[in-house]
Every structure is written in structure tokens, then in C-alpha cells.
Write a structure and sequence with these properties.
The structure holds two protein chains of two kinds. In chain A, strands 5-4-3-2-1-9-8-7-6 form a nine-stranded parallel β-sheet. In chain A, helix 10 links the parallel strand 8 (209-212) and strand 9 (230-233). By secondary structure, chain A is α/β, with parallel strands linked by helices. Helix content of chain A is 47%, strand content 14%. Chain A has twelve helices and nine strands. By secondary structure, chain B is an alpha/beta fold. Chain B has helices at residues 3-8, 32-45, 49-63, 73-79, 98-111, 125-137, 147-152, 154-162, 177-190, 208-231, 246-252, 281-284, 322-330, 340-354, 360-367, 369-372, 394-405; strands spanning 18-19, 22-23, 69-71, 83-87, 116-121, 140-146, 166-170, 195-198, 237-241, 262-270, 286-290, 293-297, 333-339, 381-385. In chain B, the strands form four sheets. A six-stranded mixed β-sheet of chain B has the order 3-4-14-9-10-13, sandwiched between helices. In chain B, strands 7-6-5-8 form a four-stranded parallel β-sheet, with helices on both faces. In chain B, helix 5 packs across helix 6 (125-137) and helix 14 packs across helix 15 (360-367). The N and C termini of chain B lie far apart (55 Å). Classes of the chains: A alpha/beta, B alpha/beta.
């Protein structure tokens, strides 16, 4: 069975799944495998592994920074596949590759999807591929049993939410605010998010829904994801790494933050 | 299908916003409602006589259109071959063709009730044009500009600020046009309900390449009429510089189906196309996706966008409009590249022979005359789009000449 579906099928009714984003190759090439395994040990249910791109136009300064560092560190698509391959030796946590289309296109869409499936990737999130352009990768992803996860935002119409639902597998990614990625003031996010998630629930019926953008604490996650199946954290993790790396305890600081996100203090 | 048949039926973009295999709308979901609304409104506006009359009125009394077609007699004598005519976009208000599009899009923004305008700029000409149009209509204007370009084009920064625009310095990446565009898109993603993004070239997601072409077609339409008036025929050659490609597409488009016209676009080679410091996207690039469309790009084997280099800030961009990519693949337009040095020599030649100081961008088109003119004959006609004037580049030009003399 598909690993993504498996975690949603086994979710307890009140549980919120936690998906964690980390840029492959950040803060250095060698720690990504270990970070993923430790995220899992500390409560992560799904991993979104960022494929760095030089021009991440849907992301805020935090992800742009981690992407720049990873590219300077020498990350490549093949190294990203090696990371997944190593994680798969000991772990069955769902892994979703997240990134922009150009590096995928350059690698070759068929070769990319084949290789991704081979090393144990479960799904893809490509923010600059809206539904009308997904023909560029849809067939190849299907052939290799890779889920394509579309995004919806507060300004997405009911009609397009239904379309995103029909064209997604695994889950639908709800962007909680109109804007780029980045940790935000929790109040700012939760104020408007309730009505949005209500609309999401009414229109997205085939897939689970995960909420992301702006979550930086357990409280944020509980508020924002109260009506969703789970939540996604990315920039707040990168910010935490940035704050502590390369001090000796950077990983333990990060993991205690991860535990607090899922379980509270 | 032969190039000829393809050209005769030339009708792009298709309903999905594609020019052959290029174009499309590769943007985050958040922007989809905005570009759908924009496309619908643009299609209504361009067929609305009230909109078109207002635009025509502004182009006439504010921009100063039609711009002149000037016979370059001394430049023609210099080469002793085909006659050379200049389409004088440098005489537009603000000194370059960019104002045609800025006025058009500001009218559209106003029609859509958007009061906050954002733009990206490289050389600053599009930023100045946008600031100008916003001042004229009393709209809030924010221009994103790379930190490096703000130094190279200080005069234009001052002009924008004087007209009430806020110029935001972009310090990410290469600190030039590519990164200014990223920042403008991020602003748009964040403020999409209130904000109209005026893209300055025939790049970006559909409908931008089509819309920007539409607002610049006036260049080619006027030039065609003007050359027919003095020469009673089409020119044999059209020449324009290509960065993103807006002046070129506006100039070329009305001639694309006229198969007797050889159309040539000139890119910036920077230090040379194989120097690693170049902006020759069509010569050195490969297909890829940047800023919302699929086109030729300067990129690494890993699909990371490479930094472009050109002495001209307006051509210093690692992408190119998708329609140019298609015209290249069709074989309808020939694209070549000239170096910083060749462009600078062209600045001097045009200044000395015609008393016209061209923008550094524009000078790239003139530099190709060195290669083109020996192949022409005296009964032929070359028409060049003189897309902008060089006042803004005087700092760069003076410094270059000083270094050359040392």
C-alpha cells in the first residue's frame, strides 16, 4: 500500500498528523538523512524533502536562504535520491519531494519519476505546477505510482478546490494564508483560517487535508489544523536550525522543538 | 510543414497561452484567480472602443506617438550599402518604448479597480515608465530593483522617486532583474487581492506575453506605415535588441507574416557567448521554466538558473519571452549575440554619425550592422528599432571610455 495512504488510514480520530519540511542539503550535505530519521523518532508522520531551486518564487526569505545554502553545499538531484535511498534502509515514513519544476524538467521528467519511485519517494508537491499545467508530469507520475499533491489557498474558488481534490492523491495541501512560505504571527493566521478550512472541508471530500504556511508552535498547529487532518511545518524548522547550527547541540535543540510542535510543552 | 506555411498561419498564443511548446502559466495556485481575471479583462478591454480611444489619446498627447521614422543618412554612407532607417522609440516620453506597455497596463489596472501597482525593473526604464503612468493616474507604485542595478542606473532610481514611486532594493541572488522579478512575484502572491503587477517585458505567465506584445504592436504598425510612405514597400531587414524581448516583439509582430522581410533579434553576449559571463539566452540557453513560463533559459545541468551578464542592465536577464523561443525554433527570426565591446563601439558610431546616443540595450542591435551591412546591397532597406535613448547610461559609457583610454 502507498505509504501516504497508510499513515492517514492509521490516524486516530483526534490525532493531527505532522508533516515536516526540510531542504535537502541544508544545513550541510551529510545531516539530511539523520535529520529525517530523527524527525520520525520525534513525532513526524510525513517528510517533505525540499529540492532546492535558485529562484523559489513562492517561498519567503527562510526557504530561499536554505535553498541557497544547499545549492552552495553542492546538492544535486542524484544526491537527493541517495538521501531517500539511505532513509529507506531503515524507515517507511512517507517521503514527498517538494520543489519547483525547472530542476525536474532539466533532469528529465521520465527519468525523474522513475528514479524517485525506485528509491522510495511517495509523492510530489510542485508549487509552480497548477492543475492546468500538470500534464507536464501527471502521466509519468501515475505510471510510477507517485502521488501528486495540489495546493489550495484562501482565494481558491469552490470550483477549483473540487478540481484540486479530483486531481490530487495522498492529500490536498491547504495554504493557510495568501502569501509566500514563512513563519508568521499565529493570531494573524488563525483569524481567517477557520472559514477557509470550513470551505475546504465542504469541497474537498476525496482526500485528507493538511494545512501549512505560518505554523511555528504547537498552539498554532492546534488552532489552525483543528478542522484538518494535520499540519505542515517548514520555515520554523529552518529558522531553528539557522539559530543553533553549527553549535554542538543544534540537533538536540531542533528535536526538542519538533517534539513540542507535535506534543506541546 | 515548411517555415513558410507555419508563418503564413502564424496565430499564437493558443488558448492555453502556448507559443508552440513554449509559454504556459507556471504559477502557484494563489495567482491563478488573478491571471484568469486579468486575461478575461484584457480580452474585453482590447475590444472595447472606449478603452482603445483612451489609450490612443494618451499615446498621442502624453507619450508623443506616433514616433518618427528617421533616415540615417550618415550611418548609411558609413557602410555604403543598404539604406538604414531608425524607428525612434527613444523619442517617447521617458525615453524608451516601455511607456507604451506601462500606460496600457495602468489603464487596465484602473479598469479592474486595483489601486496598488507593483513592477520589477532592470535598467530602470520599465520602472520609470510605470512610475510615470502611476503618477499620471494617482496610483500607488512600488518598484522592485536589484541592488546592483540601482547603482548602475542611479539616475533612473532618482527619477522614479521624484515621481512618487517607492523603489525597493532587492538584495537576494544576483541583485539584478531576475531577483527583482522574484520579489515582485512574492509581493503579488502576498497582496494579490489589491495589487496589479505590471510586468515590463513579454515574459511571465500567460496572458502577460500576449498582453505586453499587444501594447507594443503600435511600434511595428507605425513603422510599417511610415516605411511604406517613404519607400512604398516593406524593408528587407528588421533589427532589434532582445533581452526579455518586448521592443523586438512589438516591432517584429506586424511583419511576421511578411515572408520577404528578414527579421533579426540581437542578444547580449556580455564578454562573449562562451565566456560564462553572457546574457545570450537563445544562443546558449536550453528550455526551462522561470517566472511563470517555459522558454529558453541560461541554466546549469542541475536546472539552477545561471547569472546573466551584460554591460546593459536591461538585457541582463537569463530568460527570454516564450514567443521569441518559438520564433527561433520556427526559423522565422534569426537570433545573434554581440559583446559588451561591440555594443559600446556602436554607441560611439551612432553618436558620431547621427547625433543620437542610444541606450546600451539598443546599441546591441546597431552593433550587428557590422556583420549585416556587408551582405546587403544599395537597393535594400534596413529598419532598426531605436528602442531607447542613452542618457541613463552616461555613467557606464563614460567609465568604459575612461578605462579604455587608460
Amino acid at each position: 500500500m502507498n505509504r501516504i495512504q497508510h499513515v492517514f488510514d492509521n490516524k486516530k480520530p483526534d490525532e493531527k498528523l505532522m508533516s515536516l519540511f526540510i531542504t535537502a542539503g541544508y544545513p550541510d550535505l551529510d545531516s539530511t538523512v539523520d535529520l529525517i530519521l530523527r524527525f520520525e523518532a520525534n513525532g513526524a508522520d510525513i517528510i517533505e524533502l525540499g529540492m532546492p531551486f535558485s529562484d523559489p518564487l513562492a517561498d519567503g526569505p527562510t526557504i530561499q536562504y536554505s535553498s541557497d545554502v544547499a545549492i552552495k553545499n553542492g546538492i544535486t538531484m542524484n544526491k537527493i535520491f541517495e538521501i531517500v535511498e539511505k532513509v529507506r534502509k531503515t524507515s517507511e515514513i512517507p517521503i514527498i519531494l517538494m520543489g519547483y519544476m525547472n530542476p525536474v524538467l532539466r533532469y528529465g521528467v521520465s527519468k525523474f519519476t522513475r528514479k524517485a519511485a525506485e528509491v522510495g519517494v511517495d509523492g510530489l508537491i510542485i508549487p509552480d505546477i497548477p492543475i492546468e499545467e500538470d500534464g507536464i508530469i501527471k502521466k509519468q507520475a501515475e505510471e510510477n505510482d507517485l502521488d501528486i499533491i495540489h495546493l489550495v489557498a484562501p482565494n481558491t474558488s469552490d470550483e477549483r478546490m473540487k478540481l484540486a481534490d479530483e486531481n490530487s492523491q495522498g492529500f490536498v495541501y491547504c495554504v493557510s494564508v495568501t502569501g509566500v512560505t514563512g513563519a508568521r504571527d499565529g493570531d494573524e493566521v488563525s483569524k481567517s483560517v477557520d472559514r477557509f478550512i470550513e470551505r475546504v472541508r465542504a469541497n474537498i471530500t476525496l482526500n485528507p487535508v493538511m494545512v501549512g504556511f505560518g505554523i511555528r508552535s504547537h498552539e498554532d498547529a492546534q488552532n489552525i489544523a483543528s478542522n484538518a487532518d494535520g499540519f505542515i511545518v517548514g520555515s520554523a524548522l529552518i529558522d531553528t536550525i539557522k539559530q543553533h547550527y553549527p553549535k554542538d547541540n543544534w540537533q538536540s535543540e531542533l528535536m526538542s522543538f519538533v517534539r513540542s510542535l507535535k506534543f506541546g510543552k | 510543414m515548411s517555415t513558410q506555411t507555419k508563418t503564413k498561419n502564424y496565430n499564437y498564443p493558443d488558448e492555453r497561452g502556448y507559443y508552440g511548446q513554449f509559454g504556459g502559466k507556471f504559477v502557484p495556485e494563489i495567482l491563478i484567480p488573478a491571471i484568469q481575471e486579468l486575461e478575461a479583462e484584457f480580452n474585453k478591454a482590447k475590444n472595447d472602443p472606449i478603452f482603445n480611444d483612451e489609450l490612443a489619446g494618451l499615446l498621442d498627447e502624453y507619450v508623443g506617438r506616433p514616433t518618427k521614422l528617421t533616415f540615417a543618412n550618415r550611418l548609411t554612407e558609413h557602410y555604403g550599402k543598404a539604406k538604414i532607417y531608425l524607428k525612434r522609440e527613444d523619442l517617447c516620453h521617458t525615453g524608451a518604448h516601455k511607456i507604451n506597455n506601462a500606460i496600457g497596463q495602468v489603464l487596465l489596472a484602473r479598469r479592474m479597480g486595483k489601486k496598488r501597482i507593483i513592477a520589477e525593473t532592470g535598467a530602470g526604464q520599465h520602472g520609470v515608465a510605470t512610475a510615470t503612468a502611476c503618477a499620471k493616474f494617482g496610483l500607488e507604485c512600488i518598484v522592485y530593483m536589484g541592488e546592483e542595478d540601482m547603482v548602475r542606473q542611479k539616475l533612473n532610481v532618482d527619477r522614479m522617486r521624484l515621481m512618487g514611486a517607492e523603489v525597493r532594493s532587492v538584495t537576494s541572488g544576483s541583485r539584478t532583474l531576475k531577483d527583482a522579478t522574484n520579489e515582485a512575484i512574492r509581493d503579488w502572491v502576498t497582496n494579490v487581492d489589491t495589487t496589479f503587477y505590471i510586468i515590463g517585458s513579454v515574459v511571465g505567465p500567460h496572458p502577460y506575453p500576449m498582453m505586453v506584445r499587444h501594447f507594443h504592436e503600435v511600434i511595428g504598425n507605425e513603422a510599417k506605415q511610415q516605411i511604406h510612405k517613404v519607400e512604398s514597400r516593406n524593408p528587407d531587414y528588421l533589427l532589434a535588441c532582445v533581452g526579455g524581448g518586448s521592443n523586438a516583439i512589438g516591432f517584429f509582430y506586424p511583419f511576421i507574416k511578411d515572408e520577404s522581410v528578414d527579421i533579426i533579434g540581437i542578444e547580449a553576449a556580455g564578454f562573449g557567448v562562451d565566456s560564462g559571463k553572457t546574457a545570450a539566452t537563445m544562443t546558449k540557453g536550453t528550455p526551462g521554466i522561470l517566472h511563470g513560463s517555459l522558454s529558453y533559459l541560461l541554466q546549469s545541468d542541475e536546472g539552477q538558473i545561471e547569472l546573466a551578464h551584460s554591460i546593459s542592465a536591461g538585457l541582463d536577464y537569463p530568460g527570454v519571452g516564450p514567443e521569441h523561443a518559438h520564433l527561433k525554433d520556427l526559423g522565422r527570426v534569426q537570433y545573434h549575440a554581440v559583446t559588451d565591446e561591440e555594443a559600446m563601439n556602436a554607441v560611439k558610431l551612432l553618436s558620431e554619425t547621427e547625433g543620437i546616443i542610444p541606450a546600451l540595450e539598443t546599441a546591441h542591435a546597431f552593433a550587428w550592422l557590422e556583420k549585416l551591412m556587408p551582405q546587403t546591397s544599395e537597393d535594400e532597406i534596413v529598419m532598426i528599432n531605436l528602442s531607447g535613448r542613452g542618457d541613463k547610461d552616461m555613467g557606464t559609457i563614460s567609465e568604459y571610455i575612461r578605462e579604455e583610454n587608460n
